[in-house]
Amino acid sequence: MNIFILEDDILQQQKLKRLLDQFVADLKATKVQIKTSDRPQRLLAQMATAPINNLYFLDITIGAQKKAGLELAEQIRQLDPYGTISFVTTYSEFLPLTYDYKVAALHFIPKDDPQKYHDQVLDSLKTALAHQQLPLADDTFSLKNNYTNLQVPYEEILYFETTGLNHKVNLVMRHKRCEFFGSLKAIAAMDPRLFRCHQSFVINLENVTALDHHERLVYFGADTYCLVARNKIRELQQRLGALHG
Amino acid sequence: MLIYQQTSGLKLRLWQLLSFIPLAGLGLWLPDYGIYLMALVLFYLYGLPAFKDRQYLALFFSLYTVSFFSLIGNILDSLAALAPIYNILEFIIIPVPVLLNLVFLKVANPNFRLLHAAYELPVKAMLQVINSVLALLLVAEFSSYFLQALDRDFSALRYVISGIFFAVMALLLLYITMKIRLMQADQIKELRRAQLAQLTTYTQQIEGMYNEIHEVRHDLGNVLVSLQDSIANQDLPAITQIYNNVIAKYGQPLQNSKFNLTHLSNLKIPALKSLLSAKIISALGLNIATSVEIEAPVVDCYVELVDYLRILSIFLDNAIEANASVADPQLNIAFIAYDQPQQLVVIIDNTTDQTDLNINQIFKPKVSTKTGDHGLGLAIVKELLDRHPNLMLQTTCQDGRFRQVLTSTPLGGIPSL
């Protein structure tokens, strides 16, 4: 794994590098290289030879450019979509929610709070190392059209449902729900695991936990369920049998 | 049918349109004007699900449609009967009621949607009265047909009844239009009053902040003077002590969440700003660590402001309430405005003690973790979302954090519906 540091103050740059060197030794992490730079362009050039899944510590203000670090983070995301990015800056520049949304930033690390600085640098490193162990999820449902860019692991999908508006579909997961533009018909055709069991629902067969013939309900855990159409219940039963049997 | 769609703003489904003709045709077997009765029942039944069981509203639209059509048709028919080329005229006049209805809606422009939104208010009682009057008129109208069928000489009285019918109907419509206008005016007045109150609190808060900064400036001036003395005396221990004192005293307060409000200056929509400031101030009052991030100016929310404010205020109320029994409560709000392409994203992120909350249930009416009338909150949000194709919501609830992400885009950039 590579760790990139963007910081134009040499003293602070070296301070962070020393701290990271020490953490890397403490955690007995191997194959970790730390690369420092004082300009965004230089960091991007260094990235050209580095594989993905890196860890980045970025200062926000570089020289006269007030948002150099934030802009760089957006460029990094294009190249390294699953890398770990933390910003190292002063409190007045904190925008954690905004940059969590824009570039999935992990931490805003305060330069002027020694304890938090120490803790969050360490946490960033641990998070990035843990991330290396995870296999890259390639089993994702992805939908891209003019209005939508959606990527979700199949295992998280419970079902899709219609909303009160044509073309607006609601995706329901265990801890999340989100609306997007699409059509149930097209979604049902995208994968054999997806099944249209009702005019208003497309379900993920893999996450079905129970089927109630009597009430014609299909369950995903205790209190999440959707309706099954009368003429689909037999087919649903067969598909479920084939999958789980 | 056209009249019904124009007035109620409802689109009938294809199967409803197709089934309407044979079903209404059944009415022809009934005596005389059974077709009208049939149409009345059909409109009512078709409309009921769309109006979410607001029976009186559904009834109103069906009564309105049928009586309007029969009345105008009747008058025209009578007039045409006087003319010599009756047979030709009879066909020409068929579309006239539809046109007349359009003209009326254009001229008076009553906002029937408001009746939807404010159904529970006095509207219900008002609709009951109006519905009974309309029904009475219909009965009178139909009985006049009957009487005419019995006795040809009855036509004079029929004209009189038609005339009265017409006058009463016109008055009724006028009354509804006025009433709706009044209700609209009331709503706007209410909004203005709330906005003014919120702005007042906001101003007080800003003044408080200004005073605090002023005080700090004054203190720091004094500190500089004493530092200067200590430096002149080369008194390092004294300098260290002064430095530490300053850090201890001002390091934290200036990071105080109260100063978050300065971000609100990037909200260029006054009503939105006053709503946000009011909710934030009340959250701070409850000791919830609150932060606001608004990096770029927010100038447009791309949907009707009233609806947008309603949604945000429900989200914020819920966020504040969810924090009631959390040990270390937090509320974080961010507005992210994009230029290319235009888009506004609002994130409301809060701690919650509802760790086992099922987010797939909370949008259904009457399901709420709260008591009292707050329970309707998210159901209202759902209804508003279903009305605006350019609003998209994403909800997450995991590990004691609840997050709503609402995205709005200009209407032009979405699929035609």
Task: Estimate the strand proportion of chain A.
Answer: 25-35%
Number of strands of chain A: 15
Main sheet of chain B: which strands, in order across? Answer: 1-2-3-5-4
Ranges of chain B where pLDDT stays below 50 over 5 or more residues in a row are 370-375
Q: Secondary-structure element order of chain B, as H and E?
A: HHHHHHHHHHHEHEEHEE
- Shape verdict of chain A: elongated
Which series of helices and strands of chain A comes N to C?
Answer: EHEHEHEHEHEEEEEHEEEEEH
Radius of gyration of chain A: 23 Å
Beta-strand content of chain B: 5-15%
Q: What's the number of helices of chain A?
A: 7
The number of domains of chain B:
2
List the helices and strands and how they pair.
The complex is a heterodimer of chains A (245) and B (417).
Chain A: E1 2-6, H1 10-26, E2 33-37, H2 40-47, E3 55-58, H3 68-79, E4 84-89, H4 96-103, E5 107-110, H5 114-133, E6 140-144, E7 149-153, E8 157-162, E9 168-173, E10 176-181, H6 184-188, E11 194-198, E12 201-204, E13 210-212, E14 217-219, E15 225-227, H7 233-244
Parallel strand pairs in A: 1-2, 1-3, 3-4, 4-5
Antiparallel strand pairs in A: 6-7, 8-9, 8-12, 9-10, 11-12, 13-14, 14-15
Chain B: H1 2-8, H2 14-26, H3 34-50, H4 55-82, H5 86-92, H6 96-108, H7 112-117, H8 119-150, H9 155-232, H10 236-250, H11 270-285, E1 289-294, H12 305-322, E2 330-338, E3 343-351, H13 377-385, E4 391-398, E5 401-408
Parallel strand pairs in B: 1-2
Antiparallel strand pairs in B: 2-3, 3-5, 4-5
